[in-house]
């Protein structure tokens, strides 16, 4: 997927169902993105090849809180949870002015992770 400074919606977007939550407790649903491979990649000779070591000390926003958060376990289990509005950007300053974007570096492989976090009272 090609990312841009203004942001591009993740495709395919994340969509899943959850079960086993306490219907009365409140939860946040969060997506973060971690580096899946220690290499930069480039397209050469009709295929992607690793080219150099990636910088693992990059700061930026790699967390996205679902817009329905926080909500009850009953709400989350009622229907499929979709992250269709999540955008990816390569603009390092995006985390300061947008809660809908995750800032990443171009030409690297990433893996999204979903967290269900119970809110303590």
UniProtKB/TrEMBL annotation:
<dbReference type="GO" id="GO:0000978">
    <property type="term" value="F:RNA polymerase II cis-regulatory region sequence-specific DNA binding"/>
</dbReference>
<dbReference type="InterPro" id="IPR036960">
    <property type="entry name" value="T-box_sf"/>
</dbReference>
<feature type="domain" description="T-box">
    <location>
        <begin position="1"/>
        <end position="121"/>
    </location>
</feature>
<keyword id="KW-0804">Transcription</keyword>
<dbReference type="GO" id="GO:0045893">
    <property type="term" value="P:positive regulation of DNA-templated transcription"/>
</dbReference>
<dbReference type="GO" id="GO:0000981">
    <property type="term" value="F:DNA-binding transcription factor activity, RNA polymerase II-specific"/>
</dbReference>
<dbReference type="GO" id="GO:0021902">
    <property type="term" value="P:commitment of neuronal cell to specific neuron type in forebrain"/>
</dbReference>
<dbReference type="InterPro" id="IPR046360">
    <property type="entry name" value="T-box_DNA-bd"/>
</dbReference>
<dbReference type="GO" id="GO:0000785">
    <property type="term" value="C:chromatin"/>
</dbReference>
<keyword id="KW-0805">Transcription regulation</keyword>
<dbReference type="InterPro" id="IPR001699">
    <property type="entry name" value="TF_T-box"/>
</dbReference>
<dbReference type="GO" id="GO:0001708">
    <property type="term" value="P:cell fate specification"/>
</dbReference>
<dbReference type="GO" id="GO:0060429">
    <property type="term" value="P:epithelium development"/>
</dbReference>
<dbReference type="InterPro" id="IPR018186">
    <property type="entry name" value="TF_T-box_CS"/>
</dbReference>
<dbReference type="GO" id="GO:0005634">
    <property type="term" value="C:nucleus"/>
</dbReference>
<dbReference type="InterPro" id="IPR008967">
    <property type="entry name" value="p53-like_TF_DNA-bd_sf"/>
</dbReference>
<protein>
    <submittedName>
        <fullName>T-box brain transcription factor 1</fullName>
    </submittedName>
</protein>
<dbReference type="GO" id="GO:0009653">
    <property type="term" value="P:anatomical structure morphogenesis"/>
</dbReference>
<dbReference type="Pfam" id="PF00907">
    <property type="entry name" value="T-box"/>
</dbReference>
<keyword id="KW-0238">DNA-binding</keyword>
<dbReference type="GO" id="GO:0010975">
    <property type="term" value="P:regulation of neuron projection development"/>
</dbReference>
<keyword id="KW-0539">Nucleus</keyword>
